[in-house]
């Protein structure tokens, strides 16, 4: 047995035989030609064919993975029409007097290298898109195809990498899973895999393809990112049990998917999901969450070696919003300090970090960081249904300063003619006792509250959430915490604001009824808790 470790992009287990993806890359030879006009005409004809193919793939993707994910193929169609890309092909044909295939391949190399060398991870990932459209164009010029051997058995498709169009073109009924030697979790391919509900592991390393052959037995564990080639009996038994467990959970998921979050007496509640990065979107969609109630934006900063630029942030936020196709996405502004330390922020060591320089306190003290994030957020707001949320609020003046900064950023965007959604909701976390107690003063300033029960419990009970010794002193159902939540709910509603809970307590099924009786409008939980929570909500009768 050989074990490879990659990155699981869709959590499920697949057991089956290997099918090595064969890409019949058209061998591109450099051929000297005389009639450059005829070669340019061949490129035009191939482009028309490529557009036809991409439109068909777009329609297939639209049905299988939704509008936001199908959009990439519209982008590919636009890229094929890109002026610089086309000028490069024409100029290579005319100046070097070479065949169309060679000119497309050379252009592909130049453009993909240019993207790969960019600083921005999102732009780097676009190198794969240029190669993808160029390979299609070359295939259209030479009339060659690609794919897996046709067989009736479902197989685990293994490839060096898969382009988005190749991923969508795979016949889903014949694919058990896919594994790629390369690939980034930022790529559209990874996003598509998540949304196609196919177990997938990417980036297992370049040795991988040398050690497998068609028909080899393989297990793919999309939860852990492990790939077992020729698994031994013990591994087979263990992973089969995991697969059965997945199937049981999936059954629960299938039964409840698409159903409303409504109690027996007809009270509706929103169930959203919490994520820490773009990589979490697949789980949100797979678990049928109605939106994202907490996107912990600080993970973008934690995963980075330096302050993420406005562009990097914009791309991440835009991707989340687009992937959620118009469903609500609440992005919390930077919440570092306390347990989340980042070297490049160079924060002083503090005796009481949880009570120290963290979250909104950092943003209000270092407005350049705050402004960059707010600009990225407002720019992204044009691509979906965004809510912006501020953490660790304790006073009216903090909220006023945040709103003033939002106003400045919107004015800058207006002046620069940059589009954003002026109706973007702005809210605050209720995670300090101070915020809950003055929630009557805070509610008129905002559109929503979201209760951070993790911090609210720590501050109300004076128990450091990081200190394991205090476990027995932390009563997560403490009346003081529940009263603060109830008080915040009343004050939110009295001021036409909505209120959600995004701390871990939102997933505590023994409190769901109490929260609904308080009038909580939204509960945001880790994706695997969405459906169990839906089941719970549907069993409650508030008239009893
Ligand atoms: C909370 O405090 O409850 C919360 C949701 O935020 P975090 O856990 O990120 O502090
Ligand atoms: Mg918190």
Q: Provide the CATH superfamily of the largest domain.
A: Phosphoenolpyruvate-binding domains
> What CATH architecture of the largest domain do you see?
Alpha-Beta Barrel
Number of domains: 3
Bound molecules: phosphoenolpyruvate, magnesium ion
Strand proportion, as a percent range, falls in 15-25%
Number of strands: 18
Q: Quickly name the level 1 CATH class of the largest domain.
A: Alpha Beta
- Shape, per Cα inertia axes: globular
Reported by name, the CATH topology of the largest domain is: TIM Barrel
User: Termini distance?
Assistant: 58 Å
Give the biggest sheet.
8 strands, mixed
> Could you tell me the radius of gyration in angstroms?
26 Å
Helix content: 40-55%
Sheet/helix structural class: alpha/beta
- Average of per-residue pLDDT values: 90
Give the strand line-up of the largest sheet. 1-10-9-3-6-7-8-2
Uncertain runs are none
Number of helices: 20
